[in-house]
Structure formats: structure tokens, C-alpha cells
């Protein structure tokens, strides 16, 4: 009998396991991951950015967790010798029509308590000499990190705290018992008093196995990236973002300096035909059918048809993708970029066609389900883990030890 079983070994699941071990040192904790390594999906394929929290609605989970998580992630990396850099970023308006949105973003940054500064086009060029813009914002707390390395350290700390880790272990069924839940897997059964679902791309399915309705469905969006050739990396010093479109939830094509020195450009955002579909040709009939028969998807598609078509064109046309990059750095040419890895964002979508804009944490009977944790979840992982622990009922024998 375990006290806590965590389904999913991405950065959020592992952070939750680490937080549980700190809160309840005597607890029996197990983390179950279906893949052969930790942080295999969203965590292992993201841009590696330590986000500041400037984009998120003040008072939201994303705003609070990201602002606090930005600080706690940097502190964690420093403490454990994990590769990272607080390099800052610029968000730029490329024409006059974007200035009002840039001002709104600046005000949001102030509301979220961030160290941000409005800068002129000339001041942008002092940071990023190759950028063309009319004005910008300097965000000082943004950084980059190796989130796979962070996740491995979380896993190491769980084991040091006495927790168990199981890779290649897929949860296939959940049986409710009077005071526990039995997780049936391809590697046998695990019984736990409390269950935490951090299954990312499959979080809605795991919730339903646990008899919890998240009232949203995961719709996978693939983000495709190019990277600058080594001889063109000098074009980017830090991170360069456009002003995001408030009607479209993704941040737009941008330049990101990675912790290994490479520079990635992207991503676009296109519907993936498989929840773990990193290639255009990846297809899963069940995943595809679920999206195509979900009314929320068609409502979203109707509302964002124009943007959706632009994203699809960028997916299949390198020229269109490069044209988007040239709005930020006019010098970039098609020969300067080569395709690199793609990531898949697990985006929760409601039946009315609205994307779940915040982290979605749903409570069940002796369970907590993290059903929407896209970016900035990696940045916020330590804070999300703490918040999940606060929502879990403490087993009686552990509560008495904590109180003592």
C-alpha cells in the first residue's frame, strides 16, 4: 500500500513527487511513467525557456506560479549545478499597429510584479542589433535551462527521499476501493491511498479512468521549429519575441537561444493527428477520431480559421515560415535555417470551443488531476508541485506525524 501514487514522469509529476517527499518524509510514494525515460514528451521537447510570467492574466495560476516559479527554478538550478542562464528577452512591435498591444503587455508585466522596461527601437538594437522594430519591452527575469536535467534531478531527489520510481509502466485501469485506488498496469498492480494524475497528453483519459470528468478534452498541437545554422547564430543574443495576438493563444514565431548555444526559431501551432505525433506523418485513429467528433474543436476552428490556415501554410512552406522570421530579423534567409525537433502541446479544450487558458487542477475522491499544464508548466513546476500537495488529503497516519 502506497500513500501516494503519481501517474506521469514529466517535470510536473516528478516535481509533485519531490514536494510530497518534503511534506511527508515518511510517506510511501511511487511514480509511474509509461516511457523508458523521464521527461520524454512535453518536458523533453519544449524550448527550454524559464518564463517570466508577463503574458498571463494577473491573479491566474499561470501568472502566480510562473512569477514564483521563475525564481524558484533559477534557485534550484544554481543549487544543483544545472545548466541555465538568466539572459532576459525582448518583446518587440514590428509596426505601429502593434504599439497598443505592446503597451498593454507592459502594463500586465507591471501588474504581475515583474522587472520590465519599455525601450525604443534604438535600445532594442543595443541588445539585439539585427532586430527590426518600432519599440520593445525588456524582460529581465527570463532565462533558459535544461529541463531534462532538471527532471532527472527531481527523480534523483525523490529516490533520496525514499520514493519509488517505475519506468516502462503504463496505467491501464483504475479501480476504486473504499479507502484506496488500485492502479492496474502492464507491470502489475499498485494500490495507493491517494493518486495524482500528471499524465500530460493523456491526463483527460487518466482522469476518466479515475471516474473524474475534467470537463475538457486534450487536443494536441504540434509546434515545429527550425534552427539557425551555426554560422548565423550571431544574429540572436538572447530571446526575441513578437507581440502576441490576444485572440490566438500561442505566442507566435520567435527566436530562442538554447542552453547548448544553438538558436531555435518557431514554433508554429498545428493540429497533431496523434497525441504524441512529432512528425507530420504521425497518425493515430483513436486520437484523430476523438478530435474530429468533439464539438469544441469545430467551434475553436471556426473562430480561429484565418490563424489556423496561416499556421498550416507555415507548416508546409519553409518560405512562409522564413517570411515570419524576417518580420523580426530581416537578414534571415531560407538557407540560414534548418528543420529541428518538434514538440506537442497538450492543450485542454472545453466543449464550447474555448481553450482552457489557465492551469486546470481537478480534485476527485482521494485524487488530484492536473488536466491542463502546457507552457509555462516547466518554469512553474516547483510551484505546481507544492499546490498539488496542498490539495491532497493527508493520510491520517502521516498527518499525525506532520502535526507532531
TrEMBL record:
Residues 3-390 form the FAD dependent oxidoreductase domain. Keywords: FAD, Flavoprotein, Oxidoreductase. InterPro entries: FAD-dep_OxRdtase, FAD/NAD-bd_sf. Its cofactor is FAD. GO terms for cellular component: cytoplasm. It is an enzyme of class 1 (oxidoreductase). It comes from the Bacteria. The keyword Acetylation does not apply. SUPFAM superfamilies: FAD/NAD(P)-binding domain. Its EC number is 1.1.3.-. One of its GO terms (molecular function) is (S)-2-hydroxyglutarate dehydrogenase activity. PANTHER family: L-2-HYDROXYGLUTARATE DEHYDROGENASE, MITOCHONDRIAL. Belongs to the L2HGDH family. This is L-2-hydroxyglutarate oxidase. The lineage of its organism: Bacteria, Bacillati, Cyanobacteriota, Cyanophyceae, Oscillatoriophycideae. The gene is lhgO.
Amino acid at each position: 500500500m502506497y500513500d501516494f501514487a503519481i501517474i506521469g514522469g514529466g517535470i510536473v509529476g516528478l516535481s509533485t513527487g519531490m514536494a510530497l517527499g518534503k511534506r511527508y518524509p515518511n510517506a510511501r510514494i511511487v511514480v509511474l511513467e509509461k516511457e523508458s525515460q523521464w521527461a520524454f514528451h512535453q518536458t523533453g521537447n519544449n524550448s527550454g525557456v524559464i518564463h517570466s510570467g508577463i503574458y498571463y492574466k494577473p491573479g491566474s495560476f499561470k501568472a502566480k506560479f510562473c512569477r514564483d516559479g521563475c525564481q524558484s527554478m533559477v534557485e534550484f538550478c544554481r543549487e544543483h549545478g544545472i545548466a541555465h542562464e538568466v539572459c532576459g528577452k525582448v518583446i518587440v512591435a514590428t509596426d505601429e499597429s502593434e504599439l497598443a498591444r505592446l503597451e498593454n503587455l507592459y502594463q500586465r508585466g507591471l501588474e504581475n510584479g515583474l522587472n520590465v522596461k519599455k525601450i525604443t527601437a534604438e535600445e532594442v538594437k543595443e541588445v539585439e542589433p539585427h532586430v527590426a522594430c518600432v519599440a520593445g519591452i525588456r524582460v529581465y527575469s527570463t532565462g533558459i535551462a535544461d529541463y531534462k536535467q532538471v527532471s532527472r534531478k527531481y527523480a534523483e531527489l525523490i529516490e533520496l527521499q525514499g520514493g519509488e520510481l517505475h519506468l516502462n509502466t503504463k496505467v491501464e485501469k483504475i479501480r476504486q476501493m473504499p479507502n484506496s485506488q488500485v492502479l492496474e498496469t502492464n507491470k502489475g498492480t499498485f494500490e495507493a491511498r491517494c493518486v495524482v494524475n500528471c499524465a500530460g497528453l493523456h491526463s483527460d483519459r487518466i482522469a476518466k479512468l479515475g471516474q473524474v470528468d475534467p470537463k475538457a478534452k486534450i487536443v494536441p498541437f504540434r509546434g515545429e521549429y527550425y534552427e539557425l545554422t551555426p554560422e548565423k547564430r550571431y544574429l540572436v543574443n538572447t530571446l526575441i519575441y513578437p507581440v502576441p495576438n490576444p485572440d490566438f493563444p500561442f505566442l507566435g514565431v520567435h527566436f530562442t537561444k538554447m542552453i547548448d548555444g544553438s538558436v531555435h526559431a518557431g514554433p508554429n501551432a498545428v493540429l497533431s493527428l496523434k497525441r504524441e505525433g512529432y512528425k507530420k506523418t504521425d497518425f493515430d485513429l483513436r486520437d484523430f477520431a476523438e478530435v474530429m467528433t468533439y464539438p469544441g474543436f469545430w467551434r475553436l476552428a471556426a473562430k480561429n480559421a484565418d490563424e489556423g490556415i496561416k499556421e498550416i501554410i507555415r507548416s508546409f512552406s519553409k518560405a512562409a515560415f522564413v517570411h515570419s522570421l524576417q518580420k523580426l530579423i530581416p537578414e534571415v534567409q531560407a538557407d540560414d535555417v534548418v528543420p529541428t525537433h518538434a514538440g506537442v502541446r497538450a492543450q485542454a479544450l472545453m466543449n464550447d470551443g474555448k481553450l482552457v487558458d489557465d492551469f486546470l487542477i481537478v480534485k476527485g475522491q482521494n485524487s488530484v488531476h492536473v488536466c491542463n499544464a502546457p507552457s509555462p508548466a516547466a518554469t512553474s513546476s516547483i510551484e505546481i508541485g507544492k499546490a498539488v500537495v496542498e490539495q491532497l488529503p493527508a493520510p491520517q497516519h502521516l498527518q499525525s506525524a506532520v502535526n507532531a
